Amino acid sequence: MTAHPGFTLPDATTSLPRDGFRFSPDAAKEADGVLDAGAAGLFRQLVGDQESETTLLVARRVLHAFLPTGEADPGTDADALADRVRRTRDELAPLLTAVRGRDPHTYRLALRQRAPLTLLAGCWLESVSQTATQPAIVVNSLFGHYFRLQGEGTPERGLLARRRRALARLDVHLPGIETVDFLKETEARPLTVLHASFHLALSRLPASFLPEVVGVYYAMTALGADDLLLGTDTAFPAEEDARAVLAEYLALTAGSPTGDRDRRRLAGAVALVLRLEREHAALLRELADWHDGLSLDAQVGRIVARHAPYAGRQHRGVRLGDRKLSDWLDDEDLDVAAFVARFREARQLKPAREGVCRFLRSIKFGGPMFGIFDEHEAAVFTRWAEAVAAGEPADLDFRPDTAGDDRAAAWTAALCAADPDDTVLTEAPADLDDRQLFHRVVNYERFPHILPTARARAEAGLADAELLFTHGSGGTLTDAAYFDYTPEALMARVDAIYWDKLVDPYRPLTEIPDRETVIFGQTTFALGSLIDGTWAQRIGNLGRNHRQSDHMLFSIYADEMGRGDLDKNHITLIHQVLASMDIHLPHIRQDAFLDQGDLPDGLYGFSVHQMCLSLFPDSLYNEILGYNLGIEMFGLGAMRLHEIQKLRRHNLDVSYEQAHLSIDNFSAGHARQSADIIVAFLDGVRRDSGEEAVQREWRRVWRGYASFAYFVEHQLVGRVLAAQAAAPADGDAGLLI
Question: Half-sphere exposure (CA, 13 Å, Cβ side) for 32?
Fold first, then answer.
């Protein structure tokens, strides 16, 4: 092992090294396909997939297309940047206020158009706190803000919920941003979708673009375009709070070897946000002007175009002019102006003796088309039918909606040309040892091509752990033996583990090992401690925060990270403990950590498994819940108390051990919360899919717990595997443990 520079607190990191992003050739082909599919496909990829290297490569190309490559002023201070943003806000305020004052339907159209940006709700911050970035000062500050944006564990208090309530008060009701019909329901223009895709791309690579995250977060918060458009009185978070983070970051760059470049990157990101928000405000004005200028015929045409894909085959023999209505509406290239012209002449629009035409009767209660059109659409049809009956001439010169299209074309061209020179196409090495694999999964943003290997490793670990479904009751600190789930059965098992395996066996040590032995023992735990909370670090991200279990697990992760308080951050605490033992490691993200000689090689597998689980928060969600239960209960009982006793005897730091003994408590702490999370999750499964689905999903949860036990109970696992190896091939060994 070679000598290495030690990592010291506080962590004043302002950017991570940018030595290239490694992607597989297959990911490049898939990314080409995503970009070729257009803005909507790009948006859906970035929202819907947070687990693949394809998404990360798409994000890298989007960022390359949007972020400025020219030099920005490196000497800008927080006040000067704030003044620049304030001037842009003053420029946008009257424009957005004017949109707010339009006809209510036009205003709602503008709100829907803005919604893909409004409902991103600080997405840039959702993964800024990760293993590669903690416990950097600015990362803790940003995470503290993100915790507030998420409602501090109560989503109803969060920014997303606030904005949805504001939209609902204005009669704008939209599906979740992750749903397939979200863009359709918002009628999002290409420019809107491209802008939203930039923000989503930044949320996928926040560690690699930390200066840009700081700049975008401040500029978006201080501009407050959504508050101006919604008419909300109080900005959340406040500009002064975001400016404090900006000032803190800029102060840190003064002592950073990359400080000059980092300030340029931040200033460039602020300038980009100002440009994008000017573009989008102009789009909203163009859209409002276009909509307010629509003739009644054009308004009817918009309604027909919206409903035509769902209407054609339901009208049987009805004719419009010389064609069946079904033929008109089934036509993918429907000529809306020609349809409206024929509709004006149709017998269904001629006034009947009662004074109401057949078409209007058909859309009222009791009619065959009742419920198809909303209140506003029905009112448009009524005004139009009355105008046609009154002999008003047709106005069939339909102007298409082109709001923002010129600027969208420019961004699309930039995307097509995007070829960042820091992307390297290469297959992941097949012969990595655990140290090398650990380095890559910690730095997954730099090594996205490792993701297939990480998934295979996670799946293999979970499969191996099912060994304990049969033999797990013999564990010293765990009991992973399988059982059929009920809430009562889970709580009974958890109670039994707590009392029988963790608490009741405790007796104070009568002999304390010497200092060197105690320190060595701590080094066997240290690698796992240095990635504390990792398993949950990507839970509850955008589009994935609708379950109670999401909010609860996110709150546990927030506790592990000190909720933004650097002194309470568990990564800070373990570094303090190691420093008290005169162990000064590089940061685990650094290349130098590959050569550290203080932590034993044999225990990397445990941390690799945890890191690999964390990279698949959607597809391995159940397993993460089970793993979380195992690791949170591990903080309790005899082992932790013995470690505290040994550390105190030698005047070594006990803060990490004490924090876990306290925060993981079984009364109301993380251990109890972890069981409650599983119950909440499976309650939702039962309501949605029934009892059979509960048992299926539960099996996956419990193999997550077993995968934790598999590494902790290495002596038990060794005995079981040895006995299986010695068993006759054609008989039952009658395994005894």
Answer: 8
Q: What local confidence, expressed as pLDDT, does residue 327 receive?
A: 84
Q: What does the pLDDT look like over 573-611, one tens digit per residue?
A: 999 999 999 999 999 999 999 999 999 888 899 999 999
Q: For 285-350, give the secondary structure using H, E and C.
A: HHHHHHHHCCCHHHHHHHHHHHHHHHCHHHCCCCEECCEEHHHHHHCCCCCHHHHHHHHHHCHHHC
As a whole number of angstroms, the distance between CA 10 and CA 72 comes to 28
Q: What is the pLDDT of residue 728?
A: 76
How far is 45 from 31, CA to CA, in rounded Å? Answer: 10
**Cα 113 from Cα 99, distance rounded (Å):** 12
> How far apart, in Å, are the Cα atoms of 362 and each of 75, 226, 304, 494, 610?
68, 40, 15, 62, 61
- Do strands 423-425 and 323-324 pair parallel, antiparallel, or not at all (unpaired)? unpaired
- For residue 326 the two structure tokens come to 């079904």
Q: Mind listing the pLDDT tens digit for each residue in 467-517?
A: 999 999 999 999 999 999 999 999 999 999 999 999 999 999 999 999 999
- Rg of the chain on CA atoms, in Å: 30
Nearest to 701 by CA among 455, 469, 453, 442: 469
Q: DSSP code of 395?
A: -
Report d(CA 431, CA 436) in Å as an integer.
9
> And the tokens for 191?
């420019």
Percent of the chain with pLDDT over 90: 87
Q: What string of H, E and C letters represents the secondary structure of 20-73?
A: CEEECHHHHHHHHHHHHCCHHHHHHHHHHCCCCHHHHHHHHHHHHHHCCCCCCC
| Chain segment 62-118, per-residue pLDDT in tens | 999 999 986 666 667 999 999 999 999 999 999 999 999 999 999 999 999 999 999
> Which helix (H) or strand (E) segment is 725 a member of?
helix 714-726
Neighbouring CB atoms inside 10 A of 718's CB total: 10
Give, rounded to a whole angstrom, the gap between the first and last alpha carbons of the chain.
39
Residue type, 448: P
Question: How far is residue 155's CA from residue 548's CA, in Å, rounded to a whole number?
Answer: 9
Asked whether the predicted pLDDT for residue 735 surpasses 80, the reply is no
Q: What is the DSSP letter of 369?
A: T
H-helix segments, 423-544 = 434-442, 451-465, 467-471, 487-496, 515-530
Evaluate whether 342 touches 397 at the Cβ level (below 8 Å).
Answer: no
What is the reported pLDDT for 324? 85
Q: Which of 121, 413, 103, 412 is nearest to 287 (CA)?
A: 103
Query: 619, 492, 505, 509: which is closest to 51 by C-alpha?
Result: 619
d(CA 513, CA 498) in angstroms, rounded, equals: 26
pLDDT tens by residue, 319-344: 888 888 888 888 888 999 999 999 99
Q: Are 51 and 618 in contact (CB under 8 A)?
A: yes
What does the alpha-carbon distance between residue 586 and residue 571 come to, in Å, rounded to a whole number? Answer: 13
* One-letter identity of residue 574: I
Nearest to 710 by CA among 635, 630, 636: 630
